[in-house]
């Protein structure tokens, strides 16, 4: 991790000669550059694809890059949770080119480091910032870093430091702490913090009320949720938003009050104005599915598409909603529509159908879908094979289940490990069959791929008769 502490003069000297000729190139203009480069960046949907070669190639072709463009790209990548790629652009700005990061850019980079590398690397980055340059934005980003990683004591310490420095002048730091307390179930802390805001003359904003509303929902306190909702509606200084009503709908759904939930969803929909966000429709799809209302799910889907909603996440939400409603035929139609249209392949979408088929015992359909993916030149991932393994063992096809779980293990990635339960079932089956050799092969594969921690691996060893194993083969 390169440190922030590089002088602006050094950056300019290092990048000036390289950029001078490129910025004066006659092959580009401000109006044409963003669209072409933006297209290349948006098409690099695979998180493993680095942004740096794309930026370098763009410059090598005689084009220029504006600081405002890079900031826009970072914003868009963060929006789609492509944090690694956003960080690559941010660090490229800092480390290799004559771009001077503003305090806001620094805060964004710290946030991205947190999301990509964790709070320890974020701490190192913050420490590299000169003390006289650590403004409220840097401290705010560090506070958010600790809240994001649920480091309560560290977050409280930063909050106190910000108070000492006079950086707590609005609701934002309080909202971060309120959100953290709420996430950690420390609801007793919320009222005291909101009282402190009042004493300091810092007004609660809509985010403050939304956090409190969510806390009432999390603690299933419907009565207090309703009281707060009425207070928000009555406050002339607060413009109630879409999320207030969907939060209330969630509370009612948890309490089994379906009609009240549907009323809240209708109110939330009324707040989707002229230029609707597709994310609002995606949220409504999920809630109407949770309410068991298939007609409303299809109605929202048609509105989503009418407003230009042809995005992977929308299809993912719709298929997932129909699967939950046990509308497999409908989910198949949406899947086929996506497969015919797909601009950027997202394995999570076919995986929803594979999982649904396997749970329903429709293994032939699941196999056909897997084959279709392979024939199109796409490799199913570990999740795909996990679903297949579960489907096979539920259907009594243990030989196929073992082969599927091997494929899941071979393609395991961080956060996408082969299902412990599926592996356990396969090992117990092999042990029951007395097939020591096959059990050893599977254990060796697990060990070599580093799928699990030592403790979890030991639990898998307990599934077989260890005295029959050739220890040197698996350790």
UniProtKB/TrEMBL annotation:
The keyword Repeat is assigned to this record: yes
Q: Which Pfam families does the entry link to? A: PPR, PPR_2
The PPR repeats are at 135-169, 170-204, 346-380
Enumerate the GO terms in the molecular function aspect. Answer: mRNA binding
Q: Which GO terms describe its cellular component?
A: mitochondrion
Cell compartments where the protein resides = Mitochondrion
Top-level taxon in the UniProt lineage: Eukaryota
Q: Which InterPro entries match?
A: PPR_rpt, TPR-like_helical_dom_sf
Q: What keyword terms does UniProt attach to this protein?
A: Mitochondrion, Repeat, Transit peptide
Q: Which SUPFAM superfamilies match?
A: TPR-like
Family named by the database record: Belongs to the PPR family. P subfamily.
Name of the protein in question: Pentacotripeptide-repeat region of PRORP domain-containing protein
What organism is listed for this UniProt entry?
Jatropha curcas
